[in-house]
Amino acid sequence: LKDALRLTMEMMSSALCKTNGYILDFPAVSPEEIEEVSEFFEQVKDLSGKGEVPWGEVLQDTVELPPLAPEPEPPKPPVEETEGGEGGEGGEGGEAGAAV
Fold first, then answer.
1. What is the DSSP letter of 4?
2. 1 CB-near residues (< 8 Å, 6+ apart)
3. CA dihedral 24, 28, 29, 31 (to 10 degrees)
4. Which of 9, 56, 71, 98 is deepest in the core (most CB within 10 A)?
5. Is pLDDT above 60 for 98?
6. With 60 as the cut, is the pLDDT of residue 86 above it?
């Protein structure tokens, strides 16, 4: 975990991340990892321009998308022809009757 946190910190401290921002989704932490994760968060706070994340602003969706167009009808399956050019019902029954 320590190496993963170190690599994450390197990425987060890059100029591109500082400009664009980031949101981390953290997995469950075991009791043995609490100290490492706490140190990581202290380093993150030092990088951050704000002490708290304004979640209302982060999660706000202001983009208006056009309504979806109706989906086209799926293609019809091809009609299977039986021997003798007969289609649909009776094709198999006729063959069985001819064999008797």
1. H
2. 33, 36, 37
3. 160
4. 9
5. no
6. no
Q: Is the pLDDT higher at 60 or at 16? A: 60
Residue 64 DSSP SS3:
coil
> Which two three-digit tokens encode residue 12?
């987060």
Residues 34-79: pLDDT tens digits? 888 888 888 877 776 666 767 787 778 888 889 999 999 999 998 8
Structure-token match 């987060």, residue found:
12
Instruction: Report the alpha-carbon distance of residue 8 to residue 36 in Å, rounded.
Output: 13
Residue type, 82: T
Which residue type, as a one-letter code, is found at position 23? I
Helix (H, G, I), strand (E, B) or coil at 81: strand
